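Course assignment 3, question 2. Fill in each field.
Student: A.L.
Task: Predict the tertiary structure for the chain below.
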Amino acid sequence: MTCAYLGGAVGSWLGMRAYGRLGWLGVCALVAALTAVALARHRGGTRRTAGRFRRTAAPGPGTTGQIMAARAAATSHEETS
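Answer field:
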């Protein structure tokens, strides 16, 4: 919760500084820059899991059906055992 309030305070302060120096164009540029940073971080694909960083990768084209078939086969094998 503290981070949310600190982020809001920093965002307000940066917006005020951008507006003071460059007007609404500066505020729009600031929002665009912060959005680009957030998108780049999101698209980077690293997640913190169990104390370690793990790189996630999307399956290649055409492999989704193979993955689903393998999961279905493993599930049906477990149910019959």
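Instructor remarks: Residues 11 and 34 are 10 Å apart (CA to CA). The radius of gyration is 22 Å.
Grade: pending
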